[in-house]
Every structure is written in C-alpha cells, then in structure tokens.
Amino acid sequence: MERAGVRLVILGAGESGVGAAILAKKQGFEVFVSDFGEIKQAYQDELNQYKIPFEAQKHTEELILNATEVVKSPGIADKVNIVKKLKEKNIPIVSEIEFAGRYSNAKMICITGSNGKSTTTMLTYHILQNAGLNVGLAGNIGKSFARQVAQENFDYYVLEISSFMLDDMYEFKADIAVLLNITPDHLDRYDYQMANYVKSKFRIVQNQTASDHFIYCDDDLEIKNYMAYADIKSQKHPFSIEHELKNGAYLKANNLMINLTNSDQFEMTIQDLALQGKHNTYNSMASGILAKTLEIRNETIRESMGNYKNIDHRLEFVANISGITFINDSKATNVNSVWYALESLNTDVVLIMGGVDKGNDYTMLKELMRQKVKAIICLGKDNKALHDAFEDDVEVMVNTFSASEAVQIAYHMAKKGSTVLLSPACASFDLFKNYEDRGNQFKAAVKEL
C-alpha cells in the first residue's frame, strides 16, 4: 500500500536505522536514509537491494527538512545541527522502537537502567525461550526491532531500552517494564542534571495501564524518591536484597524469594544462580519476577537462572595464566559498572581502565580501590582525570596506549592468585572502534602472553 506523500527520513544508517528503513519501505512510505558518517558496505548493499535512496558523510538539508516524520538513531544528540533545524520546523522525531511498535501486536517487555540492562535482557530472553514462548530479542542488542517487525512474527519481544531511545518514545507502551537502577551516566546529554536523567528513565512506564506490570529496584534511592510522587497506573513489583517485600522479590537467608499476589511462591538458593555477585542477584530477581508475571513454571525459571551463560565483554572470563585470572569487562563504560565489577571480585586486582571520560565522578570507587586495587593501568589518550582521582588511593599508576601494552604490563605486575580486570569506566572511541573492539583486542593480547 502506497502512503502517498508520506516521507520518512531516517538519520543514522546503523542496525536500527537500516531496520527502520526496511520496515518503512514495507509499509509503503517514501523513505530516505542519511548518515553523517560512513555507512558499512553490508548496510549499503541492503539499502540498494530494497531500492532505498541514501547518502553518507553528509546531511543534505533539502532532502531531510521536507520529511513528514524522522526516525533518529539514539546515538545522535539533540544539539546536532540538523536535529535543531528539524525541531524548529516542528517535524516529529521518533526512535526506531516508537516507529516499529506501531506495526506489531506482540507483548512488549522493556528493560532499562544505568547498569545490568544487557544481562537482564539476555537472561529474560533465555528464560522465555526455555519456556517455549515465541520471543524476539532487540533494542540495544542484536538485530533491530524494526527489522524483526518487518521480517519475523514474534508474540513477545524482550527489548533493552536506553534513556536515549526513551527520549524519542511517545505512544509506545511496555506491557512489562523493568527499571533496574539509576546512577549518573550520560549526564552530558541531560544538561548535567540528574533530575532530567531520572525523568528520562521513568518514561519506561509512560502509557502503562492497570493491566500492565512495573518491576523496579526498591533499594535504589533515585527510584524510591521518584516513586514517592510518581503517578504510576501499572501493577508494581519491587525487588530488594535489603528487606522483605510484598508482591515482589527479596532475599531470605541465602534464598531468592519471589512472592506475587495470585501466584505460587518461587524459591532458589543464590548459590545456584548462574550469575554471581550482588548486582547479578538484582538482575536475576528482575528476570524472575518478569517470568512469574507471564505465569512461567517455577522449574523452568529455576533451571534457566541456573544454566545461563553471561554475555561477551561483561565480566567475561578470558584465561588463567600462571595463576592470574584475566577478566574482560569492556562493556563497563561508566563508573557504576566498574564498582559492580570490583564488588564481585574477592582477590587483589590490577585494573585496566580509561578512554573517553563522560564527565565521570570517580568518588564512589575510592573505597574499593583502596581495598582491592594494587595498580591501575590507564588505557586512553588522556588519563589526567584518572590520575587526579586515584593517585592517593593506589600505589602504582601506569599510562599505556594499546591493549597489548596494557596486558603485558598488567601481567608483570599481577601476582599469583590475583585478577587482571579490564573495566574501563569510559567510552572506547579514542583508541578503539567500540567497546567490543576494545574487549576483543584485550582478549587477543591475553592469548599472546
């Protein structure tokens, strides 16, 4: 069906942009894709295959400012020139999730939070698959949501949703929403105002009704403060490792308990969880509650939470060489993630960190640094912020400019029984393509030792 005169412009030709273009074409829109950077050859080939016009390394205003609507990649900030001009002309800008959601009747399970999103999303997907549900996985992970709506037919979607995506979501509704935690991250995109970031995260519950579910951490101060005056229509399911709760999850002795109204009790010892460490107990609680709201059997949940394998670049075991354990946590691009990584280790640590600092406040790491970290190996072009933050807390700090140099120095500094941890707290694009590239180079360097 041809949507005469309805012009959809897509900014950004990565996975989400190309997915949105394919869906838009299928829905009969006139489509144009524009990327200010280069477009990968594989994506160019696909756009050509679908006869979708595109441009790279520029934004041609006369081809963009005539749009009926724009789908914008979450990586493009609002302060970018072309976005400002679109806003001046009142041309609606939406996220790929918002756009694709219009064309799917599947049940939407949406997971957000500053940390633990990917792990919780993958664990939830794992449980739902094991329960035999027809489920897709999208958002910040894997194939784009729009592409799957265009090409697949799932009954459920588990979506990892970032605050940048939420900022451009308006009508979309999560049937089940999960908010794991809120800690300072990406504040450069929120005028350095924590309140703006918190508000953005709570967009996960917008449009929810009394038949929907909201699963959240009751130990998180920012969430608790906001919940005190928020008007949330959905059924609330809190989780905590600090106190017992009704209609949610909590710890009793060493058991993870889930008690939901109208549902049988779930119980599992935390030693049996595949994901260890305090932060992962939270992730397992969130996924467990979610599975219970979908009436998945206790045995299936227990089995799935016991045999799950963690994702790459998130506290990923690489090797044990001469009694030294190497762990790749390249996905830790903020301070809180590093705190979680250090908190989950019970050995001395040689920490490799650094990269593009997003205005980080390192104060929360100081105590753990003093307790566990014997040396910091800085891996980045400008390490001044790290030196300023930690030179009084850690005996040795060394600057390096490549993954192999960092790994070799770490290996010589580490003692038998200690851990070399890559957990950068920073973005990677000063020395690497992305956090995956950084993690892969780290793993390759360890294998060369």
TrEMBL record:
Pathway: Cell wall biogenesis; peptidoglycan biosynthesis. It comes from the Bacteria. Keywords: ATP-binding, Cell cycle, Cell division, Cell shape, Cell wall biogenesis/degradation, Cytoplasm, Ligase, Nucleotide-binding, Peptidoglycan synthesis. The keyword Chaperone does not apply. One of its GO terms (molecular function) is UDP-N-acetylmuramoylalanine-D-glutamate ligase activity. Its EC number is 6.3.2.9. GO terms for cellular component: cytoplasm. SUPFAM superfamilies: MurCD N-terminal domain (SSF51984), MurD-like peptide ligases, catalytic domain (SSF53623), MurD-like peptide ligases, peptide-binding domain (SSF53244). Residues 313-426 form the Mur ligase C-terminal domain. The keyword Plastid does not apply. Residues 111-290 form the Mur ligase central domain. GO terms for biological process: cell division; cell wall organization; peptidoglycan biosynthetic process; regulation of cell shape. Its main location: cytoplasm. ATP binds at residues 113-119. It is an enzyme of class 6 (ligase). Gene3D superfamilies: Mur ligase, C-terminal domain, Mur-like, catalytic domain, NAD(P)-binding Rossmann-like Domain. It is found in: Cytoplasm. It catalyses: UDP-N-acetyl-alpha-D-muramoyl-L-alanine + D-glutamate + ATP = UDP-N-acetyl-alpha-D-muramoyl-L-alanyl-D-glutamate + ADP + phosphate + H(+). Pfam families: Mur_ligase_C, Mur_ligase_M, MurD-like_N. HAMAP family: MurD. Cell wall formation. Catalyzes the addition of glutamate to the nucleotide precursor UDP-N-acetylmuramoyl-L-alanine (UMA). Belongs to the MurCDEF family. This is UDP-N-acetylmuramoylalanine--D-glutamate ligase. The gene is murD.
